[in-house]
Structures are given as C-alpha cells and as structure tokens.
Amino acid sequence: MKKISIYILAIGLLIGCTDNLKDATDFTSVTNPNLDEAAILGKENSATIWLTGLQRQTANVLNEAVMLAELGSDNYVNTQTFFDQFLDALEIRTDDPEIEDVQFQIARLRVMAKFGLESVGPADPAYDAATEASFNFFEGLSYLYAAMYFSALPQEEGGAVVSDIDNYASAIASFDAAIAADPQPQYHLAKARANYYLGNQAEAVAEATAAIGLDDDFLFSIEFDELNLPANTFESALYERATFDDLQPLPTLDFLDPKYSFVDPNVDPSIHIFKAEEAYLILAEAALADNNVAGARTNLTSLLTVVGTREVREVDDSIEGRPDASSAFASRPKTADVVVNGRPGLVLDRQAGDVMIPSVSGTSLVQGDVDAITAANDAALILLHRTRQEIFIAEGLRFADMGVKLVVHQNEFNQNPNISEGDPSTIAVIPSFIDAVKEDLDEITYTEGATTASTTVDLNVLLVQNKTSSQVLPFH
Amino acid sequence: MRTKFSGILTLFLAFIVQFTFAQEKTVSGTVTDDKGLPLPGVNVIIKNTANGTQTDFDGNYSITANKGAVLSFSYVGFQVIDKVVGDGDTVNAQLAPSAAELEEVVITGQGSGISRRKLSTTVDFLTADEVDKLPSNQIDQLLQSTTPSAQIRLSSGQPGTAAIIRTRGAISASSSATPVVIIDGVRVDNLNSNPQLGLATGGADVSALADIPVESIEKIEYIKGGAATTLYGADAANGVIQIITKKGTSGKARFSYEARVGVIKATDDYLWYERTGEALFKPGLSIEHKIGINGGNEKVTYNFAGSLYADDSFNLLNEQVRRNLSFGLGAQVNDKLRYQGSFSYVGFESNLDYNANTSLSRFSAFEGGGRGNLDELTDAQWQAELARSNAIGEEVSINNTVNRLTNSNKFIYDFTDNIQANATIGVDTRTQVQEENQTNAFQIATGSIAAGTADQAVLNRLIRNAFTVTGDLNFTHRGRIDNFEFVTVLGGQFFRSTDRQYQTSGSGGVDGTNDLGLFPTQTTDDFFLENANYGIYFLENIGIYDVAFLEFGARLDQNTQAGDDTDPLLLPKIGITYNISDHDFYYDSGISKVLSTVKLRANYGEATNFAQAFSEDRTFALNPFLGGPSFTFNNPGNPDLVSETVITTEYGIELGFFQDRINLSGTRYVATTEDALFTPPALPSSGQLDQIKNIGEIKNEGWEFALSADVIKTEKHALNINASYNINDNIVVSTGGAPAFNVGGFNVIGAWVEEGQSLGYLRGTSSVRQADGTFAQTANAALGDTFAPNFGSFGFNYTWNNKLNIFMTGDYQFGGKIVDLSFLLRHLRGVDDTGIPADLIGTTSPFNYVNFFTFDNDFIKIRNIGASYSFGDALGLFNDLKVGFTVTNPFNFGIDGQFDPETTGSGIGNQNGFGSGGFAYGTESAPRIYMTSLRFQF
C-alpha cells in the first residue's frame, strides 16, 4: 500500500515536471544577455548607432596612436609613465605591445567601417548619404593612420602588407567617395593631408583650399567620454596624473601644456584631428616651396587669425611638478623668468595661480614673425615647422612629420603567411639624421634655479637642414 | 503516518512505564578503547530515553539508571555497544574500533562513499581535530601546509584576499587553478579573483575563498584531479575540496564555548625599507567567540555553531569582522530514509588599502622608491612623508561586505541492504558589495587634484550576486558473488550558477556621503554569466578476493558553454588497486612485521574545465558613448568550443612499516591537457578581439611523496612527524600554431605561454656579460618558471597523556623564479642599483636587463606553531577545558631578494583568470599572529 502511494506520488511529480512546472525544473536553459547579429542588421537607425561606434573607435585609435606618437617625438619626455617603455627613446620593437595595440585599433576602425558600408548601412531602412559618406571617411581614416605611422600594413586580415604610399592612395579613394556623397571640410582636409605626406603639392593645395572654402575655421574633433569611456588617455597623462605618471613637455613647448585638462565628469577634452589651421599651414608651406613669400605670409596671417578664435582654458595646474615630486629625475624649468633657447615667455609658473592654456591651437608665432618673413628660406621653413609643432602638439602629427615609422608587430608576422620577420615592414624607419640624435631628442640643459635653459637638439632646424630627404618636408 | 504514530506511542508508553516502575540507582564505570586506554567524551545514553551523559577525561561516567535498563555506549570511530544494568553499580565498557574506522570511508566521487582501501586515487584529509586546532578562519589557510601535495600561496596579507591554490601544476591557461569547493555535496562560489567589474584596488583582490564557511567541519577532503574527479565533470580538473559538516552526535546536549584572542603583527622580514613598516604597520588585536551545541538521540541529531570574529589587522587601516552561524541536522526519518541537512551563514566585512599596481598604493610607492630612497631622507623629510602617508591613509575608503548562505539537503534511502539511493539538493548564494570612495580629500592628499577642489569625489560600488544550485541523484548497489564484491553507482548530477554584477559609479561629488544619488554624474555597468552543467555517470568497483579492486566508470558531460557544433563529452576512468599485504599469506609471513602494508594502485581518468559562459557566441557590443548608443564588434565566436580535457595517468604505492607506524606514499602522475583552452592573440590586422579556442596542449608530470611516522607511540607519549615532497614538470606541448602570448605580468617582463616552456613562464629581455666584457642582450629570453617545480610541507604533532598537544606545520618550495617589481621601480627611479653592473647602467633601458630583477622564489616558511593543554574536568565546573596558544607565520627562511616570494598580489585581475604568479610587488605579506584560545564544554 505504501509503495503504491509512493509510485503514484512519483508519477504525479513527473507529470507535473514535464508540464506546468517545466520552466521551474528546466535547469539547462540559460539567459544570454549578449547581442547577436540579428539584433543589429536590418534595424532602423542601426547605421547611425554603428557610426557612433566608429567615432568611439576613432577615440580608441587616438588613445593608442597619439600616446606613441607624442612619446616618440621630441614633444614629450616620459619621465615616469608606463604608457610605453620604449618609444620615448625611439626604440621601435616588434614585441612592443603598444605597437600591436595601435595596429589593432587601426584595423578595427577599418573592419568596422567596412561592415558599416557593406552590411549595416544597406540593411538599415533609414540609411542616408551622409552616413555612407561618414563610413567612407572612417575607412579612409584607417588607411591614413596606417600610412602616417607604419611603413606598411595589411589592409585585410592576414593579408599582404600595403605600403604607406598605397595606404595613402586608399585613403584618398575613400575620402573621394565621402566627398562625392557629402562634401565636408574635414573630408577635404583629410585628403589634403594624405597628399601632403605623399608630396603631391598641387592636390594638397587644392584640397586644403577646398576645405577652408567650405568653412574657413572649421574644427573636426573626436570626443571622449569621461563617464562611459573611452576617456582621453593623453589627458590622464598630462593632467590627471595622480602620483605616478609624469609626462614632461620640451621646455620650448611648456606654455602649451597641458593641452587637455579636466572638463567635467561626463566629457573628456576632444582631440581635434582636422582643423582649418592645418590647411593654412599646408598652403603656407606650399607657398614657401613655390618661393611665394606673400602667399606664405597671407596664409600664416590667416592661421594666426583662426588661432586667435580658438578656446584658451584657465587651468589650475598647481599639482604639476617640473618634474613630479615623486620622480627621481632632474629638475626642469618651472618659472616664468626662464629663457629657453634664447626665447623668453615659453615657461609658465604653475604655482603662481591659474594658467591660460590653448585647448585647440596655440603658438608662439606672432604677426611680427610673419611680417618678418622676407624670403622663402630655411629660416622661414624652420619658423613654419616650429609653428606646426606647436599647433599640433598632443595631436600625433609631429611623429609623422619626423618621417618615423612603426613596425608590424610580431603577433602579425608570426601568424600572417604573407609577412616574415625581417621584411621591410618589420624594420623601423627612422631617418638617419634623427637616428643619430634620438637619445638627445628630449634632452635639456638646465640647472635648478637658473633662468636659462636650452634643448640639446632643435629638431626643427634639423628637419629643415634635411629638407631634401624624401622622408621629411614632403614639398621639398 | 501509522508507523510514526505508533513510534510515538511506544516511546510514550515506555516513558510512562519507566516513570511508574522506576527503581533508580547510580551506575558508574570506565570506558576504554581496545587497547585499554580511557576514552573521554563517550556518549552514554539509556536506551529508549533521552537521558544520557558523557565520559570524563579519564573515561569515567556516572548516570542514574534503573536495573534492567540498557546503556548504549557510542563514540565516533568505534562500534556502539549496549550493556544491561544488572545488580551491580559498575558497568565498564570496552569499545572496538568500527569497521568504518578501519576502512575509512571517502565521500569522494558520487554515490554512497567508498572505503579508502578500495580507491586507486589519493585523497588528502583534514579531520575535525586538525581543523579545530588551527587558528585560521579561511579554507585556504587551513589547507596550507597541512595537505601534503597542495601548493597554496598567500598572495597578500590584505584581509579578504586568498591564496593561489595549485596541486599538480598549472593545467589551464584560461582559468584559475582554484579547486571546486563542495560543502555537503553542494557547490559553492569559489571565485578566487577580482570579479569582472571588481574595483581596481591595485592587485590584492578579495576572494570568495575568504568566506567559505569553515564552522563545524567534520572533515575536509582534498581531491587532486585526474581520475578522482572524473565523475564530477564540468570544471573539476583542478581538483575538488569537499567539506563535510557536523550533523551532531546522539547523546545529551553538549554546549561548548571557545574564546580566541590574538595579536596581529606585520612581518618586516621582507621590507626593503624599514621606514615602510614605520609608516604603515601597527600591531592589532583579534578577538573571537565561538559557541556550539551538539546532541541528539537515535532519531535526530543536531549541531549548532556560531562565532563572532573581529580584528584590526597589522596596520593602521585594515579591519575585518566575521559572523558565522551554522546548523547541521541528521534525522532517521524512518527505517529506510535518512535525512542530513546543513545550513550556514557567513557575514564578512573588511576594508582594503590600495596595494600593488596602482599609483595610489602607499606600500608600493614606498617600497618601489616612489618617495625617493627612504633611507636617505632626513628626519624632517621623513616626518613630512609620514604626515603625507597618514593623511592619505585616513582617507582611503575601500570596503567589502559579503553575506553568504549555503544550504544542503541530502536524502539517503535504503531500498534494501544492498541498494541505496542518495539525493542531494542545495544552494549557495553569496552577495558581495564592494565600495570605494575617492573623496576630494583623498585625491588632494595623493596630489591628484588641486587643494581646495570640492566637487570631484568619485564613488564606485560593485554588487555581485553569485547563486549556485546543485542537484544529484544516484543509486548504489553493493553485491557479492563468492569472492567478488561489486559496488555499482549510477547517477546524474547538475549544477547551474548565475553571476550577476552591477557596478555603479558616481562622480563630481562632494565629500561626506556614500549615497550615489547625491553624485551629480552616475554610470552603471552590468555583467552577467549564467551556465548550466549536467551529466550522467556510472561507476563500478569490483573487489577481487577483497585484496584487489578494479574500478571503472564514465561521465557523459554537457554544459551550456559548449559551442553549437559540439557533442557531449564522454569522460572515462579506470583504476586498479592491489592491497598485497591483505593477503593471508602475506600477513602470515614474517615480512609483515616489518613491512606491514603494501598497496599498489594505478589509474587513468579524464576531467574537464569549461570556458566562461557565452564565450562560444559571436556577439556585438552596445556601448554608451557621449549619451547615445554605439555598436561595435564583441566576441568573434567559436561554435566548436568545448571544455578542455585533462587526461591523467597515475601510479602509486603505499607502504607501511612496523604495523603502519611509518607510512610512505609515492605517486607518479602524467596529466595532459588536451584541447587546452587558449586565447591566442588575434591577428592585429583582423581588428577582432581574441577568441578562446581549444588549440593547446599542456603536460604536467611529476612525483608526489608523503611520509608520516609515529616516532613515539607509548601510553603517554605520541609523536607524529610528517613531510612531503612534490616535483612537477610543466610544459606547453603545443599552442596549436598560435604565437606566444602574454597571460600575466607586464609589457616589459611578463608571464607567457609558449611552446616548449612552462605555462606562464617569465619572459623578458636579458643582458648577460660576454667573455669580452660587453653585455649581450637577448630579447624574449626565458627567465624561469613562475611555479616552483619542487614543493612540499612538513610538520609534527606531539601529545602527552592526551592532555598536552604541541604541533608545528610548515611548507617550502624551490626551483621557480619571481620578478621583484619593487626593485625594478626603485632602479628606474634611480634609488637602487643593487647587484646591477655599474657598466651596464645607463647604456640601455633597464627594461633590457630584466634578468637582474628576477630572483629565485625559494622559501621555507613555518606556518603554525601551537600548543594546547586539556585540563579535562580538573577545574570542576566545566568539562574538557582546553587552553591553547598558536603563532601563525612565525618564521621565514630563504630570502633571496628583499621581498616576499609568496605575495604575488598582482596576479589575477580577470574574473576566474589564469594566475601565473611570478611577480612580487607592492602588497604586504601575511602577518604574524599570536593567538591564545580557551575552550570548554558544559
């Protein structure tokens, strides 16, 4: 009797488990909160959200590329950071994980842009020409950065390397597609920059002119999200330093530091990747190359006009040390009376109250300097490149101006059948005249308390001295 | 119902009869064991009544009983005997060891448990007595130095942190080496790493191991993987820690109380600068109260324990509080069905200091030269540093609160004498709240923001809820045909776990509040993992003439992490055990007087580890960006993803000499991880994230030796010594064509996975002087194994007259390497060039001579020294009064660099990630604890 009642109960339970209680007893179903492809493709406005993803991805590219480029240039010395261990000494290695990160982020920008063009956009009922143009622009941007920072990079997963010249050409093709769909000044300027580095003076001039023709003081920026990330890594390095990270600018650039500082808890300062200033600088340099002194003066005057309209931020930089207190490195100029390389007014005293720092473009160039240009000579070129250095500080262009190129990372050539260690793409490109002084690029001569300081190398002079090299000053 | 009612009626009638016809008298006597030694604590109950008592320390008891009453004498490990009260007033009893004691039953695997002599695998034990005398409240620290073949390394002295646990080498590059932890058959959260959204405090992360309930432990079994864990399936390849709790013993209720008071003092054995200790360390106190009630009758037994623990640590900042409640119940529901239930609650609160790899860590800053060469600072400079350090310390606010509830219910049903069913169902739920408040004052003190700033406070809060449900149903059949004995187990098991994490951050706040709603800007992040694992298993153990045992079985295992294109995994096991010394001819021969036990064993088994939930899927991410949504690619996906399988072959021998006064155990194992889960770097040109794949192969082989010897065994004195030595050789046989990849450490010197090297070996650029005096640099040079390949434990236990106990435990390791990152930083900061050739400094980056920062990680550490004395009933009022004193971590030997080779705090940042160890940096060593205890029953 007892057994029968147990059997009845068991059968009843089993029936219960297989019917109404199924959900309660199914221990094998799990909830997966992740998005799959079906959640994206074909959804209205998915292309717009994908485009925001591309803007965010460009912020990721800049976080990697700007850091390496600025450390590798003479702009900053890395007294105590671990952002990269080697680039500051221009030691470019195939095992440097930061170089892999740049390569990866550039490739990710490319595959995201292509997925937008090929899959997301066409499936979105609300897809429009402006969005398609943007996708083309970001694809072009990935080729542009590939060419600016690498002597060669693949354009496909595991593909053969494409030279910087061909990457610039691909960038131009993409920018052309963007311009055809939705002309924007930044598209023209992007194309101008590609042509500038290729040495295509006429095309560069045409595109720079077209850019400022659409908007003579335009500013195209990549924003950073302090709240949800990515925040601006370079801002962290320059300003939110805590007690560990200490990037120090060359004393000649002290008045431009920190270009990025705290904005608010939501937004981090933007990096201005295309701005009208670059168009005027390209036009001025082309004019000098053409011996057109008046043209150069006109464009530099326009440059100063635009710079004069740009934001200057009042910054409490009192926690900045020269160098940081926890650093064991030598002291650096930190009072306003210090004259660097014979030029006064370049160093700010950060303990004497707030300092005024240009957040877009700043320069020590004044109208008098422009007016004093009387010949398209090396002095004018040095002045122009000093101005380029100042205007583009913390934007990653100086490194490209130096003609230095990074290498394909070992994780690529160890897996990519088309690339082998020892190939030209795996060997750093450093112009010989820079290689000879690379240890001294950040070096200064300064004694604590002195009122004069000097940099060991004036790279602008060096660049102009070697202007005929194919690696630098592309118009010469 | 009728049975139950009649039972109650019978009891009632018996009571009435007894009440009516009682002719009471006082009966007394002595209870001894089979050797005639008195047995204290024996339960003496009058059958069919609730009356009972216990023997005192000398084995004596007295009880009021009637003539004709039946006295039942019971004691754990001995057979129960009944004696009738006759005319005399004295009833003595001699108890014989129970068969269970002779054949120690191991709970391991599924089914009804199986005697140890039938097993071809080894299991390490910790008994209730051993647990009770250890001062620690953490499972990892209980096992450290007390299990012969586990390598348990305390990664930090910060409260709530736990050890990296390994046994037979590193078997997986994708997951932590932490064993599965099972309490009374129920899996519990064992996350021994920072949660996915865990707060970035630097490196020493709080661990779920720190709050595994350790109250009322009857026994801990440590099963090391291989064939022993085949039937557990799922992620049991790292081994299983089984905790079996007390369910009470029948007899009169026994109340116990224990108080522990300790002094906690930081060790400065490993400080580079004495001043670091001066700035940060301060001895603290620990106080603990424990109470327990244990008792029951033949039908129902119960055990309750509660404890309250608090300490204020070894420094100026840390504090921790633990609250424990546990309850165990055993019930003979009817003559067929037994129930065993347990419930435990752990509440744990602690706070952390910033440590290891964060610029906010004062310890790392001091030891890493971030505040200059402390030895060279003037007194005035040092006073300024102290003031700064104290100002920061007062503002550090990182708090961790855990509440954990664990429940197990086990039903044992005896269909017949030969067939038994076991059903277990239980849950573990653990809620962890971590909170970090970087106030304006804190940021000003560290120099991160300018003085006077009042609107940049940041509050981070993580809430993690881990829930696991376990169910198991199995049937065991025992049979015998002539000289063959069969134990057959058939069962099914499942568990599913859900891990939900929310992190909320508020920024732009003012000081003085922990209310996130008061912060002007807030963000939330979310992380979710859910998986289900299930399998059916079969086991057959065949006894041949009761001397040899053949065991074979298999598990068919499936889980929801497997890719769409995969099938369930079939995991087989087979083993053989041959107890040569159990042959009559052997026993009769003279040799057994010298070599009393000879047991040979061999086995083969497969066990698995699964990948993180959802890692098989191709997914997209939707990230908030500048107030709107943004898409990007996420996990690339792998429809072929399956668990990695560890295939172990093991051979062993057990030898006992002189009636097993000396026991030697030796085991040889070869364990190959096939389809090893590696996450190789994607081609950078793909622009896609790295995807976990079954592409690797890892091989561990080694030896395990253990010695236990009763050096002295007389009526009054007993001295046991034990020692173990283990060798592990680990190699990555294949990376499946993937290039070497980094699994830990830093850019310049990291832990790597590369073919032909040990898993997570140290790799960096070395500089070695050549014959011509110059230095040659070698990029990607192999600098050593992070896991010390040689390790073991040792100890002794001495008792005098069953009253005085003195014990010691310790462990050691050698043969591995570790990077002293504090030294690297001191050197980079120009304050320490110790041991680095002067003609090398300045010629190249220090990152090109990292071999000079790499040291042996050898050590010998004494973990516990303790003494206790039992006064028995000598003090009258209380029974079994015991006082004890222990010192934890008293001695450290073998210091190569000036750092602790054990504190690899910056090891496991990723959820359940691989912990390579190998990097000592910026976190305090486990402190020295001097503890006294007082315990009694009444």
Automatic annotation (TrEMBL), chain A:
InterPro entries assigned to the protein according to its UniProt record, in alphabetical order: TPR-like_helical_dom_sf (IPR011990)
The protein, known as: SusD-like N-terminal domain-containing protein
Protein species of origin: Aquimarina aggregata
UniProtKB/TrEMBL annotation, chain B:
Mode of membrane association: Multi-pass membrane protein
PROSITE patterns (UniProt xref): TONB_DEPENDENT_REC_3
GO molecular function annotation: siderophore uptake transmembrane transporter activity
Keywords: Cell outer membrane, Membrane, Signal, Transmembrane, Transmembrane beta strand, Transport
Record-annotated membrane-spanning stretches: none
Compartment(s) of residence: Cell outer membrane
InterPro entries, alphabetized: Beta-barrel_TonB_sf, CarboxyPept-like_regulatory, Plug_dom, Plug_dom_sf, TonB-dep_rcpt-like
Transcription among keywords: no
Signal sequence residues: 1-22
GO cellular component: cell outer membrane
Family: Belongs to the TonB-dependent receptor family.
Species of the source: Aquimarina aggregata
Protein's GO biological process: siderophore transmembrane transport
The TonB-dependent receptor plug domain, residue ranges: 117-240
UniProt protein name: TonB-dependent receptor plug domain-containing protein
